[in-house]
Amino acid sequence: MSNVTASMVKDLRDKTGAGMMDCKAALAETNGDMEAAIDWLRKKGISRAAKKASRVAAEGLIGVAADATAAALVEVNAETDFVARNDEFKAFVKNAAALALSAEGNLEKLLQQNLGGSTVEATLKELIAKIGENMSVRRTIMMAVDPGVVGTYVHNASPDSPELGKIGVLVALKSSADKGKLSALARQLAMHVAAAAPIALTAEHIPADVLARERAIHAETAAQSGKPANVIEKMIEGRMRKYYEDVVLLQQTYVLDGETKIEKVLEKASKDFGAPVAIEGFVRFQVGEGIEKTNGDFADEVSKLAGN
Questions:
Q1: Contact, 120 vs 113, CB < 8 A?
Q2: CATH 3.30.479.20 intervals, the chain
Q3: What is the tens place of the pLDDT at every residue in 291-302?
Q4: Tens digit of pLDDT for each residue in 139-181?
Q5: Where in the chain is the domain with CATH 1.10.8.10?
Q6: What is the pLDDT of residue 195?
Q7: Which residues, given as ranges, of the chain have pLDDT below 70?
C-alpha cells in the first residue's frame, strides 16, 4: 500500500465531498491513485455530493460556544446566504460550535465528534444531500486561559441565534482579577477586534513576509520623492509606525472611545482591577474571508451546457 498523505486525503475530499475517513480508505484501497479512488467512492455510493463539492461555498455562519474556562469558534460555509438562514443549517452550526470546545480546535477531531448518533461529517453530508448545496466545516479554533477569561463577540447575530453570525471573535485575557470585571472587558475588546480587524497582537507577531512586503511598498513610494537616503529611511519608518497603529492590536485606538490605545486600556484595567491584565491572544473569523468567490454569468453557463 502506498503512503497516503493528509494532503491527498484533503484533495480527494475536496473533489468528492466524501468524509475524511472514507477518502483515506479509498486511497488506501487504490494505492493512492486519485482517479481510481474517486471511482471507488462512487461505486460505494459515498460521493453522492461530488457534483456539489465543486461549487464555491463562500457564504455561511460563524458559530461561537463558551464555557467557564474556554471558548471556540467554527466556520461552516454554504453556497448562498439563503441557506445560511435555513433553520436546519443554523442548528448544525450551533451544534458544531458546541462540539468544537471538546475538539480543542482540531478540525479533523471535530468532524468525527458524535452528533445525533452520527458524526459531524456524516451529518453534514446528509444536510448537503437534503438542501442541495455544497457546504463545508471550513475551520475551528479553541482558546483557553488560566487564570483569566476568554471573551466572545458575534457580529450580525440574529435575535433567535445570538451565538451565530458573520463575524466571530475570541479574546483571551490573562489575569487573577475578578472574573466578572474581566469578562466585561474581554467582550468589549472582542467588539473592538471585530470592528478594527487587527492582524497581530504586537509588531513582533506579524509574519516576516507580510512585514517585508509592507516595507518594500513604502520604500518604493518614498524613493519616488527624490529626497536623500537618510530622509527616505525616516519616511519609511514613519509609515511603518502608522501601519503598526492600523494592524497591531495593542497599538490600535480603542473603537469604543476613539482615543485610547489598547495597551493603555489594559494598563488602566490592571490598576482598576488590582491585578495585571494582559491579552494572551485573540482570533477573528469572518465568513468567507480568503475564499475566492466567482460571479458566473447564468446565460453563459446555459450556453455552454447547450454546446454553443
A1: yes
A2: 59-200+276-286
A3: 755 444 434 443
A4: 999 999 999 999 999 998 878 899 999 999 999 999 999 999 9
A5: 6-53
A6: 95
A7: 1-2, 43-57, 292-308
How far, in Å, CA of 52 to CA of 62, rounded?
A: 21
Write the DSSP assignment of 163-220 as a string of letters.
TEESEEEEEEEE-SS-HHHHHHHHHHHHHHHHHH--SBSSGGGS-HHHHHHHHHHHHH
The model carries a pTM of: 0.75
Q: Which amino acid is at 265?
A: V
Structure confidence at residue 307 (pLDDT): 43
DSSP letter for each residue of 116-154:
TTEEHHHHHHHHHHHH-S-EEEEEEEEEE-SSEEEEEEE
Beta bridge partners of residue 261, listed in sequence order: 253
Length of the chain measured in residues: 308
Give the contacts of 216 (CB within 8 A, at least 6 positions apart). Answer: none
Question: What number of CA atoms fall less than 13 Å from residue 161's CA on the CB side?
Answer: 21
Task: Pick 6-53's CATH classification: 3.40.50.300, 2.30.40.10, 3.30.70.20, 1.10.8.10.
Answer: 1.10.8.10
Domain 59-200+276-286 CATH assignment equals 3.10.310.70: no
Helix (H, G, I), strand (E, B) or coil at 273: helix
What type of residue is 151?
G
